[in-house]
UniProtKB/TrEMBL annotation:
Entry note: cofactor: Binds 1 potassium ion per subunit.
Family the entry assigns: Belongs to the NnrE/AIBP family.
Gene Ontology BP, a term: metabolite repair
Residue numbers binding AMP: 378-382, 407
UniProt keyword Kinase present: yes
UniProt binding sites for (6S)-NADPHX: 58-62, 119-125, 148, 238, 297, 345, 408
Catalytic activity: (6S)-NADHX + ADP = AMP + phosphate + NADH + H(+); (6R)-NADPHX = (6S)-NADPHX; (6S)-NADPHX + ADP = AMP + phosphate + NADPH + H(+); (6R)-NADHX = (6S)-NADHX
Protein name: Bifunctional NAD(P)H-hydrate repair enzyme
Subunit (UniProt): Homotetramer.
Source organism of this protein record: Sphingobium lactosutens DS20
Residue intervals of the YjeF C-terminal domain: 205-462
Function: Catalyzes the dehydration of the S-form of NAD(P)HX at the expense of ADP, which is converted to AMP. Together with NAD(P)HX epimerase, which catalyzes the epimerization of the S- and R-forms, the enzyme allows the repair of both epimers of NAD(P)HX, a damaged form of NAD(P)H that is a result of enzymatic or heat-dependent hydration. Bifunctional enzyme that catalyzes the epimerization of the S- and R-forms of NAD(P)HX and the dehydration of the S-form of NAD(P)HX at the expense of ADP, which is converted to AMP. This allows the repair of both epimers of NAD(P)HX, a damaged form of NAD(P)H that is a result of enzymatic or heat-dependent hydration.
Record flagged with keyword RNA-binding: no
Domain YjeF N-terminal stretches: 12-205
């Protein structure tokens, strides 16, 4: 069972059903879920008084199990319900609680609030009065826990269907759901804790996990570690940031091909003066290049378009970012090379692939399958999708990354890791992870250049 698996509501129900078919008794699974959640709440809150809000479905059933377990531990606990329990398991859990059940709309506040109103079965936003009451109770509590999901978020896509308060902790039952990692729902979850249910889970969508990186081989040399070429353009700073990131990513050597030769910067980067597209082809005629990055600072004029064309025809493994994606989206004569890594933000994604339906995970996966490229669908939540259906979701990046140049650093990291791994999906996942980790290592209000200085520590932590 993978602790990183992300399942939709339907996949979760199928996994639970498979467990039932294999002989697991439904109520036993609810007991397992409730006890595991109770342990998490107990470790955090001990005997501080608790109000558990129980909804009409199995999420509410979890809540009744939690209430009974906490009462057994001597915790002053109250239960307030929203409607009658409608499932067999929830009715059994309520009967086993065998205590008073208040009305959620009139229940007095408590030091700790547990939201067991709705989980993966939510079908629409909460009624306004219910949503307002939930917010009032959570916002007046010292600690708040959402069972499986904050009530009011849409499990499969992370949409917020009604007003949802910010929780201190969300206890994911059995597996992560997309809403735990996709915005805007993820932001409301607070600290994410997974409560395994020990039932078999399969999913080709995973939470991005920390990569295992390796030192270069003892007989490595700069070309065996990989030569990255970066095509520059009118905005020198962007391709300089990307080149510096590639140089600090583990690649062996970085060659920047641009019209300008900067005075300062990292001397390890080789700068080659390339004034026009026709000079670029010669520079790219080098089989030692194992990753070619085009886009940061490329520009959108005719010569930029020509340089992109030369790069696309070069046959080298490609990372396409920024202006390269804009040019690809505008010019139907250009096609996305399969096996490339593309790093679009929302606007670039839509220009390239149009308005696709369903969740960000579904959209990224559809784009990867259609284009044959690895898609790094950037944002506060980044989704990495491979053409074969594999998806990794990074949902906890620092919001300080919303500053100029951080995309250039990510693109450079992707090119560098592609040079090291020669595996586009793995390289993209490693780059997204290192980029996010480097951001957490920087002080607040950092600039993109600061990320470069944090990369060695981020890599060292993964060796
Ligand atoms: N399947 C299992 O044995 C286990 C499930 N777990 C927990 O169960 C929930 C999913 O339970 P489910 O009954 O499918 O849905 P919910 O409890 O989330 O609630 C659905 C319930 O509520 C009604 N409803 C939906 N939206 C609204 C709304 N906006 N207003 C009012 N009522 C609404 C709907 O008709 C249903 O009756 C899962 O998240 C887990 O918490 C256990 O964890 C493991 C065992
Ligand atoms: K809930």
């Amino acid at each position: 069972m993978s602790v990183d698996a992300i399942l939709t509501a339907a996949q979760m129900r199928a996994a639970e059903q498979a467990a039932f078919d294999a002989g697991v008794e439904p109520y036993a699974l609810m007991e397992r879920a409730g006890r595991t959640a109770a342990d998490i709440i107990w470790r955090a809150g001990h005997r501080r008084d608790l109000l558990i809000l129980c909804g009409p479905g199995n999420n509410g059933g979890d809540g009744f199990v939690i209430a009974r377990v906490m009462r057994e531990r001597g915790v002053p606990v109250r239960v307030a319900a929203l409607g009658e329990s409608r499932t067999d398991s929830a009715q059994r859990a309520k009967a086993a609680w065998d205590g008073p059940v208040e009305d959620m709309m009139t229940a007095a506040p408590a030091t700790q609030i547990v939201d067991a109103l709705f989980g993966t079965g939510l079908s629409r936003g909460l009624d306004d009065a219910v949503a307002d009451r939930l917010c009032a109770l959570v916002n007046s509590a010292a600690a708040s826990y959402a069972v499986d999901l904050p009530s009011g978020v849409e499990s499969d896509g992370g949409a917020v269907l009604s007003t949802v308060p910010s929780f201190g902790v969300t206890i994911a039952l059995g597996a992560w759901k997309p809403a735990h990692l996709l915005q805007p729902a993820s932001e409301l979850c607070g600290r994410l804790i997974l409560a395994p249910l020990d039932i078999p889970l399969t999913s080709d969508v995973q939470r991005l996990s920390a990569p295992h990186l390796t030192m270069p081989a003892v007989d490595a040399h700069k070309y065996s570690r990989g030569l990255v070429a970066v095509v520059g353009g009118g905005m020198a700073g962007a391709s300089l940031l990307a080149s510096e990131a590639a140089a600090r990513s583990g690649a062996g050597v970085v060659r920047r091909l641009a019209a300008d030769i900067p005075g300062g910067g990292t001397h390890a980067i080789i700068h080659r003066k390339v004034m026009h597209a026709d000079a670029l082809a010669g520079e790219l005629d080098d089989q030692r290049i194992v990753a070619l990055l085009v886009g940061p600072g490329l520009g959108l004029d005719a010569d930029a378009r020509a340089r992109l064309g030369v790069a696309l025809d070069s046959g080298h493994p490609l990372v396409l970012d920024a202006d390269a994606l804009t040019l690809l989206g505008k010019d139907d004569t250009l096609s996305i090379p399969s096996g490339a890594i593309l790093t679009p933000h929302e606007g670039e994604f839509e220009r390239l692939f149009g308005k696709l339906p369903d969740s960000k995970i579904d959209r990224a996966r559809a784009a990867a399958k259609a284009s044959g490229a690895v898609i790094v669908y950037k944002g506060a939540d980044s989704v990495v999708a491979a053409p074969d259906g594999r998806v990794a979701v990074e949902g906890r990046a620092s919001s300080w990354l919303s500053t100029a140049g951080t995309g250039d650093v990510l693109a450079g990291l992707a090119a560098g890791r592609l040079a090291v791994t020669c595996d586009p999906f793995r390289a993209a996942c490693e780059a997204v992870w290192l980029h996010a980790d480097a951001a957490w290592r920087c002080r607040p209000a950092f600039v993109a250049d600061d990320l470069l200085g944090a990369l060695p520590a981020a890599i060292a932590a993964r060796l």
